Known about the structure:
mainly beta
Amino acid sequence: LQICDTVNVPVVASFYYAYTNNCREVKFTNTSTLTLGNTISNLNWNFGDGNFINTPIANFMPIHTYALPGNYTVTLTVTDMNGCMSQASIIVPVLGPVLGSYNVSNDTVCVGDNVVFNFSGSPSSVLSYLYDFGDGSNNGGMSPSHSYLTPGIKITTLTIVDIYNCSSMDTINI
């Protein structure tokens, strides 16, 4: 005859994450489980970049913005009302802004000349383009053309925004 006792683990840490619509911003959701009658006394979220949050609020869902792209090991430590602890870790890949640049069809431009602005980069993750032609006008196309009506050096800028709402900028003087 063998007698077995069921051992209940009082707390099991678990969580998941999702990207928000803001650049390098991640939302975390606690999905830890507890035995019946047990409660969480503390959650410690370590975001893997030197930042952390301690909270007694079990359903607290932190949103964290990373300063740089990279892979971050995020750890959730759950402590229950009896002081029992459980830990879960997930590697979270944080993406940076899409990189893109542009060139122009003519290095030297005369008044009235048509200049083509050619985007060079990976357009698959680009959500929007905005060219500032340096003369008060702009265009949201990928590779637009523009004619200048006044002489002088123009500082042109391309700002691109990717599907994660990260932006990058490039500048050319014409």
